[in-house]
Amino acid sequence: MPAELHQAWKTELGGRLTSPVVAAGRLFVASVDTHTVFALDAESGKNLWSYIAGGRVDSPPTVYQGFVLFGSADGYVYCLRAADGELVWRFRAAPIDQRLVAFNQIESVWPVHGSVLVQNGTLYFAAGRNMFLDGGIRLYRLQPATGKLLSVTPMDDRLPESDESLQLNVQILNMPVAKPDILSSDGRRVFMKSQAFDLEGNRQELGPHSGEPAGQAWVQRGQQAHLFCPSGFTDDAYWHRTYWVYGRSFAGGHAGYSQAGKFAPSGRILAVGEDKVYGYGRKPQYYRWTTPIEHHLWAADKEAPEVPEPKAQRRGKAGSRPAAGGARVTVDNSSSLDPTGKPLAVAAWVKAEKPDGVILAHGGSRLGYALFLQDGKPCFAVRNDGELGTVCATDRVAGDWVHLAGVLTEQKELKLFVDGEMAATGTAPGLIAAAPNNAMEIGEDASSAVGDYAVPFSFTGMIDEVRVFYGPVEPDEIARQFSSAGQDRDKDPRLVLSMSFDSGKARDESKRANHGTVEGAKPADGKLGGALAFAAGRPGAKAAPKPAPAAARPAAKPAAKKAAPSAQGGFHVVHDWSQEVPLVVRAMVLTPDMLFVAGPPDVLDEEEATERLGSPDVQEKITQQDAALEGRRGGMLRAVSTADGGKLSELPLDAPPAWDGMAAAAGRLYLVTVDGKVLCFGGR
């Protein structure tokens, strides 16, 4: 494929189109709602023939040995001659010809996805909507040339080995796969989402692996690793709780949906090569419960990283949750913790075992403040409208108990104190202009960096006697806090947070009731009798590296590098490279040395938007992003290098691509758009 592409032809078919399939000089695509399969000449785009089925065809047909095979929502599978579109045979997969109305059209109670699977000369497909409805679903095996039935495997709400309820396998919020999808195969097995079958159509392990989110998610390696989506390959909704995975398992619920992405290559959409997976998905720090999500384009090894088996998993004990990430205390936002327009001070006793990590952070990359260690040196940072001010001490403090305090003055000065003595001063970008959207975190900045560090940025060691003041705090007061820590902590009206972590609790003793939630931290002997011990991810995990200053970053295409977050926050996947792209990727095609991505423009920084939601310019960007996602601002096609993700070329599109709507063949790229057109691109 050439990197520089030019449009060769465009054919308008109209309606909602599937992704295209190219074979033997022809392009095949289905118009979903008009039930029509089209064959176009791949060189010219000329419409060669079309065939109307009895129901929706929701995904492209399968081309095999001169036949065009596809399923339909009418409950039938069709076989056409690729040469002229003539019907060769039709097989009714529905046990009876019973109909219902779905999305304003008449369909079978047992529909079939359009894309059917041919593996080792056998045709596989599933018919039905759910194992718990209408007698369940059926997995069929046919001869592709004749439509002769080879076998059928009924799957309903009963366990196949005992005829007991399938719900006996439910573990908390996880259950066996019970809905059909487009099938896939690795040559040894057939897969329906995460459910595996042998080539004779027999169900293998039903799952789930565990009831606990992390226990369910860590089992991603092994021979059954494959590409799947828990909500199905045709799902284009971009719901935050679902994404594609190259692995074996997916967990459910608010605590589980983010787990698979920490243990296996995952993203909104993926392309799989011989040994690498390329994807577009949320950045590592957003594999957690979060409102804003920012995405990136990346490459990673195909095999999921090897991680220690959770102890609870080895014991086979449900209900004992293995620790998956960095420890922290989270304090929800409140009116008393709003720092808008206020001088402030934050202080704590710390004993660091490692030289990097956040002691306390409140806010994110737009607004907030943070007290942290970097290279063993204490630092204090303030963000205001995205501008950053930071002061750091010159001496390292790791290994000993020290009292640290950061102060933001009314005169917009930054001051840092170590054991009551001034250690550094600097200039702040101003008093904080609005309430941060991100909650306060002690022991880790897990979602959006306040300071000049990569998140998650986790602390390893002990933290005690955390205090936050909103109001002017003088140097002699900091000195008194150092010499008389723990006294009169409930009598200062400026005090908005005071935690001594007695008995391992994060109770606010400032009378403001800003109590925290402890995640993973453990009680320890503290400087004042009741500290919390924090650990950054799994044992041996390294602190996240400090990113290069903006001025030092290369303006040209970056060299290939490992963009690998550590296991902080429980994220284990190592990225070969990571790139931000100015589009929301909805279609992706991999060639030997290039990756093509396409989608509507991405104009909104979600972190910024949630920090300044009421700002007129943010509201305007939200309006623009809505229009882009609705297809009213065109689209973009970009070619990037598989070596480092660097941009090779870019073309504007009149409309965004249909979901997963690209194919490449014979030196040409084919793209289907949401306005019902098929486009062909090639070299000059």
What would your notes on this structure say?
The protein is mainly β and 684 residues long. Helix content is 6%, strand content 38%. It has six helices and 49 strands. Strand 22 and strand 23 form a beta hairpin. The radius of gyration is 28 Å and the shape is elongated.
Going by helix content, strand content and strand pairing, the class is mainly beta
| Radius of gyration of CA atoms, rounded to a whole number | 28 Å
Q: Separation of termini?
A: 12 Å
State the helical fraction.
Answer: under 10%
CATH topology of the domain at 18-276 and 303-310: Lipocalin
Number of H- or I-type helical stretches: 6
Shape: elongated
Question: So what's the CATH class of the domain at 18-276 and 303-310?
Answer: Mainly Beta
Low-confidence stretches: 312-325, 538-566
Beta-strand percent range:
35-45%
Let me know the number of strands.
Answer: 49
CATH architecture of the domain at 18-276 and 303-310: Beta Barrel
Question: How many strands, which pairing sense, and closed or not: the largest β-sheet?
Answer: 8 strands, antiparallel
Average pLDDT figure: 88
Protein traits:
684 residues, eight-stranded antiparallel β-sheet, Lipocalin, elongated, mainly beta, seven-stranded antiparallel β-sheet, 38% strand, 6 helices, 49 strands, Jelly Rolls
Task: Tell me briefly what this model is.
Helix content is 6%, strand content 38%. It contains 6 helices and 49 strands.
